[in-house]
Amino acid sequence: MKTAIKLLAIIAIIAVIGFSMAGCDKDDNNNDDDNNNEETASVPQPKTITQDNGLAFDGKVTISTSDLYLNADWDAVVANVITAFNAAYTDPTAPGPVKGQFETAFANNANAQIVLVNNLANNWEVRDGEFRTLYLKTSSIATVVYRNAVQRMLQSTPSVGKATPAKHRVFLG
Is the residue at 122 inside a domain? Predict the structure, then answer.
């Protein structure tokens, strides 16, 4: 009889452990444990950057993409664009009218935008009929000669930008 009681106790313990493991399909936030709450990449909402939240001058630029990003990755890419854009605006070696060109092209009422494209054929493009839009290859954010692109936007001249030599690159460290 002692053996039967021990056997029933062991079976009961195993059953309790088994039922508790099978019944635990929610985490502390009442979410299914199976999905681990992993974020899914999606097309992010455009970000509008002004002098109040990062632009080096009184103006406005909307940054958008149709590529897929996680939220944190999109925030980092936008920050890289603004860093490179501001560096081009404040570049002490740039000719005199460059700052005015940035301020005109990206004035508060200019409706200018930057569209990031992962697989763009060139580093940047200003397309015919879309002179308020600067298309940037995402992997070339740090190598774009922004003053050339902004000049083409203001001149309403379609153009593309090729890669620049390393000595002209902006470090985004």
Answer: yes
48-73 confidence digits (pLDDT tens)? 999 999 999 999 999 999 999 999 99
In tens, the pLDDT along 28-39 reads 555 555 556 788
Q: Tell me the pTM.
A: 0.72
How many structural domains compose the chain?
Answer: 2
Contact 140, 121 (CB under 8 A): no
Q: Residue 136: enclosing H or E segment and its boundaries? A: strand 133-137
Q: Within a domain: residue 41?
A: no
Residue 61 and residue 84 in contact, taking contact as beta carbons nearer than 8 Å: no
Same domain, 100 and 24: no
- Domain extent for 153: 47-168
Polymer length in residues for the chain: 173
C-beta separation of 123 from 161 below 8 A:
yes
CB 115 within 8 A of CB 141: no
Q: How far is residue 47's CA from residue 24's CA, in Å, rounded to a whole number?
A: 40
